[in-house]
Design goal:
By secondary structure, the chain is mostly helical. The chain has helices at 31-37, 46-53, 57-69, 164-167, 175-187, 193-196, 205-219, 232-250, 253-269, and strands spanning 5-6, 10-11, 17-18, 73-74. Strand 1 (5-6) and strand 2 form a beta hairpin.
Length: 302
Amino acid sequence: MAQDHIPGLGPRTEAPRLNPKADLGGVRLSPQEGFVLSRVDGRTSVAEICLITGLGEAATVAILQKLKAALIIVTSAPMNELPAGIAPPSASRQVSQTRPVPPVPPVAAVRGGTGSHPAAGRGPAVTPAAGTPAAGRGPAVTPAAGTPVAARPVPLLADAELDPVLLADGADLSAAAKRRILSYHRQLPRLDLFARLEVEPAAGRQEIRRAYFRLSKEFHPDRFYGKNVGPYMALLGDVFKSISAAFATLSDDDERAVYLALLADKAADAPPPTGPKPSRFVAADTVPEYRPPGGRRRDSDD
């Protein structure tokens, strides 16, 4: 989904805002809905909200449309543009019947140029760490001992999955750098906030901070100031916004708790896996051992 005009919301560049007449005291939101609503600040556009939530554009747009139908947010688009499946606001003005989510302070807008969050805005130019390959100077250099590495790196996609026009672009970037930027950007819609920082969900605050600064040194647009990176500058901006928003959320204990609840709720709503049951003769180290509530090991499926 990447249309310029989104039904019921308006242009992707428009920033939805809270309805000053909305009675939020009687609203019950799911974790996903509460998380998306916390990003509505009248400055962050629909496209940016979709980028920073980590839920994917389709899911984020659907939630924004539901919030619009419930008169919680307002945009320039008329109400009659909303999809037919979006229920009108009920008398109780409840968006859903799930448990309420405590209010979360909105994340500072993350844009290239201005911002109150230290990760936002231009700031000083970022100097690549020793051992980090400079753009357009050949293949990547093996990191020296002690150089931070990703615990959960975003996988590189095959060239067949990347835009051939961008791969062939004459930007002042190495082939490895192009693949890294294109692979990361293409996978953004399906990366959760932990994956965007290339850390495990159990990562501590210091690990998250180190991951953020490592990725900033790699993707901060200022690193490429004065270089001819052509269309890659916009991609770098998207990636940097996403990692900045991920850091802003995961480095705050309250916001991280809400986001973890969101992930748990999303997992609970996921359909059960399909396919044949794993064979009982599969190697033992590939199938978790089953123990019934009493603690005795079950040796057969009979």
